[in-house]
Amino acid sequence: MVTELRYWQAVNRALAEEMERDPRVVLVGEDVGTPGGAFGATRGLRERFGPDRVRDTPISELGIVGLGVGAALAGLRPVVEVMFNDFLTLALDQLANQAAKLRFMTGGRARVPLVVRTLVGAGKGTGPQHGQSLEAWLGHVPGLLVAMPATPADAYHLLRAAIRCDDPVVVLESLRQWNLRGQIADEEPLEVGRAAVRRPGADLTLVSVGGALPRAERACELAAGEGIDVELIDLRWLWPLDWACVESSLRKTGRLVVVHDAVGFLGPGAELAARAAERVALAAPVVRVAPPRTPVPFAPSLEERYFPGAERIVAACRKVMGRSDG
Amino acid sequence: MSDHAPRPRLARDLYVTQLRIRRFEETVARLFAQGRLPGFVHLSIGQEAVAAGACAALRDDDVITSTHRGHGHCIAKGGHLGRMMAELFGGRDGYCAGLGGSMHIADLERGILGANGIVGAGIPIATGAAYAFQAQGTGRVALAFFGDGAVNEGAFHEGLNLAALWHLPVVYVCEDNGYAELTATDLHTAGPGVAARAVAYGMHAEEVDGTDALAVHDAVARAVECCRAKEGPALVVAHAPRWHGHFEGDPQRYRPMGELEEARRRDPVGRLGHRLLAEGWADESWLTSVTAEVEAEIAAAVAFAERSLPLELEAMLHLAGAEASW
């Protein structure tokens, strides 16, 4: 069956279905219970599943992520909501030193089936402390899995896969896509670490990370109008990284453009560019399209230019194709 | 022994547990001084009564979180001496397969959710386990050991607030040895003390002489009783001076003259031994025979550890699920 839902409704449906399926799944976080989530993602769940399984917490990011770690060790499968990924800074010990390392530190004996859901506010006028994209920080911590759903269907499927995963997963949801509508099919394999080819193409490979996807799709249309046939890959998971998908595309196109909303310096594009240079004989240097190494600006006109737009992505495509106007 | 009444039997058990901890730690100190143990070790000599008394008040299916100074807690909760010692040597038969070391010993089957290299980190984790026990309705209790240095971490306040808010079955045991690392209490903690902080969160709190294992047991047993009666959480502050430095090799120049001598006069092991004899709960021959038994256990643990080879790097990568790619 195929249903049309908004991105946030897809999150809500994934949570409800997983809670229905598995009584060990619980939700904790600021505003998740009675208010139904700051942006509505947990609406109706406290009423449906009760206060033992859906708990409002104080504003204590470290405490609630740690609570999730302990609850996971004691047999639950907690889904902890941290409102914006910027606020993960307050919880980093529990995320990076505890959740991520427990399996390794115990010689593989302990597993931490914890999901941390959090928002990337980029592109919504959220400014320096609510608009960052910190996936590269998270991806740099061995032991953490990092999912970045860019469509309503992925908001549903990736979250379900994350909840069923026995290791800690941070799901970076996109506020930019929050009200986007999309078709959601019930029967899709729940795979961790699988990228999606959104558009086949022959001339170059464009890898989009997280919420940049609609701009990348628009760029593909514009490029097609200029005779450039772009293959668009939506990475979906920063870790596990589906390098096989990227490499097989690069072996066809020989050209790589990467777009993301994280700061360019040491961002996801840096890793992809390095791998491409190490492992594939490219026809042209890699081009990254990403924000400069500054905090996120608030003023709409600055924010508009700070995050990569379709025009900048098309310009990168021209450049990687050796077009003089790139 | 002929006296099988509960109190004498408890006292004898506590004596054996304390002696096991003492001999284990003395052996670790000697091996470390000989350069046979890598990394850092933090010893709990002088604080054995806290670990022994507190864990004796728990059921086997209750859980603990521990600290960087955690050998005593793990031994008191039933940890296997050989696997602990092998971990200190970095051997593959250690609790963490040699991947964690002294500060990460965990044994989920025995309810040891982990020692911890991060001060205060076990507090939210134990709180989370207690949340799981409450949600599961099992009547189990979680207990967090931490030092007086941890009470100035956000994790302490976030954990206690959450636990008090939700009436979680968790016992917080603060081992006050007078020093946060190398810094004395009066330089790091404001206000009337740790117990007062717990009272401020509305929980039952009491202070106890942490060199008196029976007194610690009784205080923690009252706290556990509170939790099982759904009147938790509760906090116990146990005062017990540390004999060794913050880490082995710490020359302790910061300690005032006479302080260590005074600490040794409060020897928790010797003190309980005298009590056993004075009350007629044990005789000299019993003390001699349990000492020989404990020393044989420790010797066997060292022999086990000496035979344990470290993992190969390839096996470590396999265990971490990273063999395919970095």
3D structure, described in words:
The complex is a heterodimer of chains A (326) and B (326). With 326 residues, chain A is of the alpha/beta class. Chain A is built from twelve helices and 14 strands. Chain A is globular. Chain A has a seven-stranded mixed sheet, sandwiched between helices. In chain A, strands 9-11-10-13-14 form a five-stranded mixed sheet, sandwiched between helices. Chain B contains twelve helices and seven strands. Chain B is of the alpha/beta class. In chain B, 54% of the residues are buried. The radius of gyration of chain B is 19 Å and the shape is globular. Chain B has one domain: Rossmann fold (3-Layer(aba) Sandwich), CATH 3.40.50.970. The mean pLDDT of chain B is 95. Chains A and B meet through helix 3, helix 4 and helix 5 of A and helix 5 and helix 6 of B.
Keywords:
heterodimer; A: 326 residues; alpha/beta; Rossmann fold; 2 domains; 7-stranded mixed beta sheet; 5-stranded mixed beta sheet; 14 strands; B: alpha/beta; 5-stranded parallel beta sheet; 12 helices
Describe the structure concisely for a colleague.
Helices cover 36% and strands 20% of the residues of chain A. Chain A has twelve helices and 14 strands. Chain A has helices at residues 7-21, 45-49, 61-73, 92-99, 102-105, 135-139, 152-164, 213-225, 243-253, 268-279, 300-306, 310-320; strands at 2-6, 25-29, 54-56, 77-84, 115-120, 145-147, 169-174, 181-185, 196-199, 204-208, 230-234, 237-239, 256-259, 287-289.
